[in-house]
Structures are given as C-alpha cells and as structure tokens.
C-alpha cells in the first residue's frame, strides 16, 4: 500500500513561513521557551477552512471557540499552550481539550513568544513607542467604559479597550519625546540572523531631557488601551507629581530578570508583572515600577503592530505560493500528467488573506473600580 503524506493546509504553511520570517525562531530563548508550530492540523481538502488567521495572546477555550466559529486556518497564540512535555492528551484537561477540538476542525496553532520579545520592531520596541508617545494623537477624547454590577461598592470588572489602542511607530507625531533606545540584554551573536543585529531581551530608553512621570503615565495609558488603573510603585516620601524620569527599562510580561540586573537600574521599570519583593527592592533603590498585569503589557502589540505586519507579509507569501502552485498544475497538465482534482486547484485559486485579532482574548484580571 502506498504511503500518503499528511501535512497542514498550504495556507497554514504560508502562515508559518511568514511568522518565521518576521520573528525568527532562532531569536527565542530556548533555555525555557517552546516556540514554533505547536499543533499541525492535517489538511482535508474536502473541508475547506478560510484563508484567515486569528491572533491572540492566550489560547483559552473562548479563543478556541472563536477560531472554530470563524473557520480560521490557524491561530497564532503568543504564549505557548504546550510549554512542557505531555505524557497524555485527553479531554479532561481544558487546554488539551482546546487543542484536540482545534485539530478536529483543521486549525493549526503557532506560538512565537520570546522571538517576538527580542526581535527588532517587536514587543519590547512597541513598549518603547508607547512610553515615548510614538503614536498618533487622539482626535476625540475617549471616555472610560465603566459598567455597574450588584456590588454596592465596586463596578463590574473593566479591561483595556482594544478599539482605542493606537498604531505605533509614526515618527511624525508631535507628542513623541526625543530619546535614544538600546537593547538591555543582546541575543548571542551566533543566534542572530542577518538583519536582526539589535535583537535581545528588554529595551532601555534614555530621554534627551528628564520627563515628568505623569506624562509617561498618560502615554502608557493611551498606548495600551486605557486600562482602568495603572499599578505603580514609587519610593516612599515621593509623589508622582515631583518625579522626573530620564531612563526607562522595558520588558513585556515578567520583566524582573531583565530589568533588575546590574548595580544601576533605570529610573522607571515598565513591565507586565513584578513580585512584591522585587518591586520593593526597586523602589528602595529610588526607581519607579509600572506593572500593568502580565498580558496587558503584551496584548496591544498584536493589534498595533503584528496584525499589520503579518497581513502584509502573508499576503505576499500566499500570492507567491499559490501562483507557483497554479503554474505547476498547468505545466503538469500540458505534459500529460494526472489531472489535479478540482478541489486541490480550488485551494490555490483563493487569493484571499485575512489576519484578525481575537475579540475573546483578554487578561484574566479585570479591575473593579470603587464607586464613590
């Protein structure tokens, strides 16, 4: 009996190639991370998925349900849903259940994680854009969306507003603060592909002139989607109104391992989470800590930057791949080869490409606001 080769869909292969070009897996921290194609769903030509990708930070049950309903070909989930070795894959585990359901519906899962953190123009540089105000000014004043609940003291949980996250990287914006930026912990030279020489963990922004802390807080709030509160740790005896910041260290997610290295630490440490004792140590040394909640320091990037980047790269990649495949089909037919199935050719005749950001994806923590 002839052996058959089972692969994911041609469009999913284009998604994987595009992600690897934008965020090389060689830049991921393989000492602990698990990046790449984590779930390769077999391609079934008689059951067509859409030429679409769903971006999310966390592959929760809600995100899996969303991808299945949308009939996406792939989910790009920043955090790897498979992190350590598995001894079994069963329906009893909620994460494994999501993977099994996605595979059943022909949806693959790719995770870039720390490759996105370290790459030039990646998540750490997005945080630099946020804190320096490198994004367009808001034309209309936005108002918080606070809903009531049955609590007599507090509102319903609130979350950052994804529709308010601005596209970053605009050098023409008038609010951008003059600065320089550098990589805190450069990647090993041997692991850096050509064109990614400034890769590494964390970024350090040095302003030409010290800036009011409150100005940076406003930049951060608008840049990450106006979350209801900004968790901040400042040295005792100081006020946010009298603190000025010259240097800012940034690291998405859990940043203490990058930001607290060395004898000198930045004036402001901007990250997703930091433990009680780490924040206390930083403020005792005179620094300020802004810790947004782990994924709130990450989620805005996929909407502000990654969606556009992947849409452009994937559109070019898929057009090239499908034109090459269609030409191969024509050449085979001219040479009297087997006529390809109508379904197989139909796959490559579909030129559509859609990259969307999950509506269901959010940080597990919301903020309930005290109502006076």
From TrEMBL:
Residues annotated for a divalent metal cation binding in this entry: 79, 117, 294, 298
GO cellular component: mitochondrion
Keyword presence, Metal-binding: yes
Segments crossing the lipid bilayer: none
Key words of the record: Metal-binding
Biased composition (Polar residues): 161-185
Region (Disordered): 157-196
Molecular function per GO: metal ion binding
Family named by the database record: Belongs to the GTP cyclohydrolase I type 2/NIF3 family.
Protein's UniProt name: NGG1 interacting factor Nif3
Organism for this UniProt entry: Penicillium brasilianum
Lineage of the organism: Eukaryota, Fungi, Dikarya, Ascomycota, Pezizomycotina
């Amino acid at each position: 009996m002839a052996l058959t080769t089972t692969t994911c869909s041609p469009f999913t292969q284009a998604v994987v190639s595009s992600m690897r070009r934008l965020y090389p897996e060689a830049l991921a921290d393989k000492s602990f991370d698990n990046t790449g194609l984590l779930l390769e769903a077999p391609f079934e030509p008689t059951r067509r998925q859409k030429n679409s990708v769903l971006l999310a930070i966390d592959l929760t049950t809600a995100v899996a349900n969303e991808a299945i309903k949308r009939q996406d070909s792939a989910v790009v989930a920043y955090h790897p849903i498979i992190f350590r070795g598995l001894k079994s894959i069963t329906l009893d585990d909620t994460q494994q259940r999501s993977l099994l359901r996605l595979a059943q519906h022909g949806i693959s899962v790719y995770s870039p994680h720390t490759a996105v953190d370290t790459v030039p123009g990646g998540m750490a540089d997005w945080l630099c854009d946020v804190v320096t105000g490198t994004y367009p000014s808001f034309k209309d004043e936005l108002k918080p969306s606070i809903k009531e609940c049955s609590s007599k003291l507090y509102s319903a949980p609130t979350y950052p507003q994804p529709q308010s996250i601005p596209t970053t990287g605009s050098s023409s914006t008038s609010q951008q603060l003059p600065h320089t930026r550098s990589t805190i912990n450069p990647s090993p030279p041997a692991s850096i592909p050509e064109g990614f020489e400034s890769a590494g963990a964390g970024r350090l922004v040095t302003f030409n002139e010290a800036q009011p802390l409150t100005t940076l807080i406003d930049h951060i709030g608008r840049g990450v989607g106006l979350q209801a509160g900004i968790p901040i740790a400042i040295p005792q005896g100081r006020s946010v109104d009298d603190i000025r910041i010259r240097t800012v260290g940034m690291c998405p997610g859990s940043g203490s391992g990058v930001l607290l290295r060395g004898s000198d630490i930045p004036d402001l440490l901007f990250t997703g989470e930091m433990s009680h004792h780490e924040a206390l140590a930083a403020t005792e040394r005179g620094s300020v800590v802004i810790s947004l909640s782990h994924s709130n320091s990450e989620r805005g990037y996929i909407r502000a930057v990654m969606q556009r980047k992947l849409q452009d790269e994937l559109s070019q990649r898929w057009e090239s791949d499908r034109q090459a495949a269609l030409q191969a089909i024509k050449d085979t037919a001219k040479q009297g080869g087997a006529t390809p199935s109508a379904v197989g050719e139909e796959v490559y005749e579909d030129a559509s490409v859609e990259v969307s950001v999950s509506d269901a994806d959010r940080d597990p923590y919301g903020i309930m606001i005290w109502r006076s």
